[in-house]
Amino acid sequence: MLTLRSILQNICQFFRGMTFKVTKRMYRSSAVFMAGAAIITVVAFTSAGFGSGGRNALTAFAETPETEDVTDQEEVKEETAAQEKAQIKITEARMQAQQLAGDFLEKEVIQKQELAEESKAEIERINDRIAMEEEAKRQAEVAAKRAEEAKKAEEARIAAEEAARKAEEEKALQAMSISQEDYKVLQRIVQAEAGICDDRGKILVANVILNRVKSGEFPDTVKGVVYETSQFSPVSNGSINSVKVTDDTKQCVDRALKGEDYSNGALYFMNRGGSRRGAVSWFDSHLTYLFQHGNHEFFK
């Protein structure tokens, strides 16, 4: 029979040659195994001398692994339960993490959408403002262009009217062969004597002045007739120099110069209510009464 030493050496060499991962259970099993192997060796080695005692020892040893197996099963169950609990916790943690990640992602997407909508709205507001400014600018340009065209049209109209007036003046001057100075004097005396009268009354005063120029009994110029001593009160009181000749008066003078005549050859006129008594008597006693128009009475 082998010695105890040689048996133990063989066992150690056997385990030394194996490479594996030792768990808690395996560690316990291997320890029991080695202890059991040692006991079996001792019992086998001494079985002849120990008799029935050796068999009892073997019996006792054989019962030990059964208790260990029960303990290991309980530990395995506990470990399995612990692992299951851990797995459940890990799963729950993962679900919570996924839920949080999903919530965060959803919130981020919503925020991005809101920012995008705000940016879009701001861009639209800017575009609307630019469009309004451009429309206002366009309208201002159109208004300025229309105003410029209206100004040019008005200037053209005024220029045309002025040209027409000058043409009429030239025509009238040529018809009577009077100078520009006489023409201005005739306008002022008509304005001063008949400025408040109607057109016929103004033309009649101009007719009387022109009749005197053509008669040979008076100076042969309008200025000479008008400024003859004691003939016309506006010359005497100086109002002829301060009057403002209206366009209507100018037109009436031009009409008279072109030949429009209502005077019946009258060489005199007076305003009976505004004349001195002596002058009125002279008119009545020395002149031939023709007619009255407005406040003026006409004589020859």
Automatic annotation (TrEMBL):
UniProt keyword Protein biosynthesis, yes or no: no
Transmembrane regions: 31-50
UniProt keywords, alphabetically: Coiled coil, Hydrolase, Membrane, Transmembrane, Transmembrane helix
GO molecular function, one term: hydrolase activity
Pfam annotation, one family: Hydrolase_2
Keyword Coiled coil: yes
Domain Cell wall hydrolase SleB intervals: 199-299
Coiled coil (residue ranges): 109-173
Name of the protein in its database record: Cell wall hydrolase SleB
Organism listed in the record: Lacrimispora saccharolytica (strain ATCC 35040 / DSM 2544 / NRCC 2533 / WM1)
